[in-house]
Fold this sequence. Notes:
Blueprint: H1 3-31, H2 36-58, H3 68-75, H4 80-95, H5 104-124, H6 137-169, H7 175-186, H8 188-199
Helix pairs in contact: 1-2, 1-7, 2-3, 2-4, 2-5, 4-5, 5-7, 5-8, 6-7, 6-8
Amino acid sequence: MNLLWITLVTATSVILGTGLCFWIIQRTHEIGSPTWVFETILCPVIRILVLFIIVSQVYPAVDANAASTGFWSILFQQGQFNHLINILFFAGLLLSFIPVISHPVFALPIQSLLTIALVFHWQYAGSIASLQLFPSMATILKITIYMMLAYFVTRELCRYISRAIDTRFAVIGSIRLVSDAIYLVLQIPVMLVYSSFLKLQLT
């Protein structure tokens, strides 16, 4: 697994996905259309697709013999791609009503880990007798530490980046999308920790 390649693919997909959402929202502001449809439906779906790309790069950490294409082949079997999009979309809506957990620093990694867990279940449920998807306490502790580090790093970075974007493109309100983009990138260690936990069940 090439961490440099994972970072490059992640950064590119995040920039493109976030940029598309930001452009759509700005266009709706310009023409005076309501933005709630895009903010609550279209942008979350785009975020989920970006999340799929990131997870596909990290998923081989579960099985050294697997490739990122294996992640996609599992998703497209028996209509599981659409099924997983629906699960993550409604999971995102549910998380938005839970205090603290609704924050992207928790919500986005939870969606990512749910993706990995479901794909792992679909792939190995028939070959592992006692499949365990819920992480151990040690794994939860590591994940929580990485989440908190991501929060503090993002809090400092997004102020400068969003201010530069607002000034450069004469727009306002980029800070939320910028912070989501940084969280998407910084959740890679969280996914690697959880993938290592699942990998132990294959040995």
